[in-house]
Write the structure tokens for this entry.
Amino acid sequence: MSKMRVNYVCSKWGTKYGPHFVNKLKNMAKRHTDPEKFDFHFYCYTEHPEGLDEEIKVIDFPDIDSIHPKYWFGSDNFKYGMARCWDRPKTFVFNTHNFADDKPTGRFVFLDLDVIIQNDMGPIITYDLDRPTKLRSHWQDPRPMKSRNFKLAHGAYTNGSCQVWSDDQCEVIWKDVLQHQEQIWFTFTDGTDNYHSWRWGDFSNTPLWGHFPSWMAYSYNRGRSWDEDDLRVDTYRPGAILCVFNIDLLPFEDKSRGSTKQDDLADSDLLAHWV
């Protein structure tokens, strides 16, 4: 029986995240990917490959002037300043034909750098092979999501910390970005989660993404599930596969929610995974 090829992908631009975030993510992914079932590969889109482990395959950002970080990334306040759709380099990962010389096929697993992998990745890798899948913000109150105010506040009900697809299932996203760059940057201003929610999500005219169930992942700063009344923050949940760290709040959200990132963690149980 042949192994399924799994291509883990991350994206690092600027200096906010040091190389240790990429190296630890690679080590966690490898540790939780069964070598008997999967052929492991790890890629990183970056313009700063210094300090990355040799096993990580570095991909240069394509030289596209409205997406490549060198053309717009810079100041500390870039996120809410002039650089709209601040995490636009993450859209490069859907151009699977740009992955170095080997042009891989198989399963692609994109992970944000601020993710901790706690358990076996098998259920995520093999979940719904027929449709691209990503995290849903199960910890958010679902009631405002269909409202005009939610959309105008640049809200997002999807979470891009983990996105999984097969072969070129998401090539349509990359083509959309190339064809409508400026429209996308100025319409979905608060990041690619906003773009994916309203361009490719459940409430769009072109629904593409499926979503992982709530047990698979939780937010250390928001909780796990609104529907199940599991919203404890700063809480380790050992049964989940992923722990994500999202600290940005919309104007109508509770300002008391957590703001911890990995480098600030004091939870020894969770830190044990981030090695």
The beta strands are 4-12, 38-46, 57-59, 107-111, 115-117, 133-136, 158-166, 210-211, 217-219, 242-244.
